[in-house]
Amino acid sequence: MILYSIIPVEVVFRSDNYLEEYNFIEVEYEGERIEVIQLQDNTYKVNRLISTSPKMYLNPKLMPGSIIEIGL
Known about the structure:
The structure is a single chain. This protein has 3 helices and 4 strands, in the order H-H-E-E-E-H-E. It is of the alpha+beta class. It has a domain at about 25-70. Strands 1-2-3-4 form a 4-stranded antiparallel sheet. The longest helix is centred in the first third of the chain and has 5 residues, at about 20. It is globular.
């Protein structure tokens, strides 16, 4: 099944433990909001973009699954 939606998966499937299971964090990267999973101290895996800026969606560094470094 493929589901294309702007609604977060936890709302669609009503899973209360979805965010706890993966420990998603919302961070600001290059001035826009993204949702990531922390891998190491300053290394994160991109889960999704929360930005409304089209330029963020065209940035290959921010494809879901990409590894980025953020100095928080």
